[in-house]
Specification:
single chain; mainly alpha; 0% strand
Length: 128
Amino acid sequence: MENREKQVKLFLLRAGIKCDQVGFTFLKEIILRCADDQSLLRNFKALCSSVGQKLGEDNPVRIEANMNNAIKNAFKNKRLEGLNKLFGAAVVNGTRKPTCLEIIRLGIEYINLELYKDFVWEEEPQSL
């Protein structure tokens, strides 16, 4: 597995998003594409369509809904608190669910700033 892809997967797992949800895969692909070119986020629907074509889903609305569902489940089960540990600051509070774009931007920042190099977990998240 490519190192950057592994780091994105670990980011999402450590952020509390379960890998068995369809939205996990869409979030991973979008973060990977946008890590080098954040201007892709300006046309989010086109980005979702492009990712959907690669992964066999042709409806960008369903892609966004799947990502929102993965984030909503993590938020509802209080698993997004892992983001605060990753960044060493309160980037998520318990009162408002983050949007897809917020999670994607945090993922891009995590990868581009190479925060994974200095981060040590007491225990690793569920296996990849």
